[in-house]
């Protein structure tokens, strides 16, 4: 007897989507549909931010409601130097990674002294502190935000162009997805996943789980800030609303929607969340009410997220394919 190979629908669908996303700039160029290129660039950027959150939440079990802080740091790492006429993308990126890394280390070290609801509330408090800090900076627009006249320029590219941002975001999405796939099954990732299940057992076998979780939080913060860096260039605008708890909540919902701890869940969750939002806006002004209800229904139907739903469909298809014709007199 030959053993059939499992039908990995949860891999086939995301890979197909990535291939289609690679064609978006060409389609946008030939059809003059810059709006859709900008929209899908936003999807890619948010997917990167959700991948960052997945490292902390999906692998390490750190439920953070403060990742908007790092997106905001990335955005203002472009906006503030630009305000003083500095348009070097290397300077912007260096500030982005340095500040987010330091903040991630400080806030992570403090937040990891607690667990559960305490961790959630402390991360939320840090994000709100950042929000009110940038609201108070009136020279940079305060709560109105600030436009970015000098977008990042590096490697001969001007990140002020939507096609440039799209290309960079797409490459970064592919690389970060590949990296998290490797990280998930690496010794480091296995320790994180073990700590999510039972931190005492991980400590008992000789691993310092707290240190691993702190490193994962810092890596998550830095990658999330890069998403903010790209978002600021895409919009040519930075605002304190990027640091609001609503953005942090959106990132968590996207991750849950796609599949916590999975490789392709962040991309599927971001695409479903932002796509559904944009679709509902076309039909009704009360889209928020319908959107909230749709998210609840999706969450109830697919408790393991979109990836879990695709796995369940593939399993059902595989099982139905294995059931061949029954011999006479044999009960099914």
Describe the structure.
- By secondary structure, the chain is mostly helical.
- Helix content is 72%, strand content 2%.
- It contains 13 helices and four strands.
- The protein has helices at 9-31, 34-59, 68-83, 89-111, 117-136, 162-185, 187-197, 199-204, 209-235, 245-258, 265-281, 287-301, 305-322, and strands at residues 146-147, 153-154, 157-158, 237-238.
- The strands form two sheets. Strands 1-4 form a two-stranded antiparallel ribbon.
- A hairpin with a 2-residue loop joins strand 2 and strand 3.
- Mean pLDDT is 88; it is low at 1-6.
The protein's oligomeric status is single chain
H-E order: HHHHHEEEHHHHEHHHH
Helical fraction equals over 70%
**Molecular shape:** globular
The major beta sheet can be summarized as: 2 strands, antiparallel
Which regions have little confidence, pLDDT < 50, spanning 5+ residues? Answer: 1-6
On the 0 to 100 scale, the average pLDDT is 88
β content, as a range? under 5%
Count of runs of 4 or more consecutive helical residues: 13
For the terminal residues, how far apart are their CA atoms?
A: 20 Å
Helix/strand-derived category reads mainly alpha
Widest beta sheet: strand line-up = 1-4
Count of beta strands: 4
Q: From the alpha-carbon coordinates, what is the Rg to the nearest angstrom?
A: 21 Å
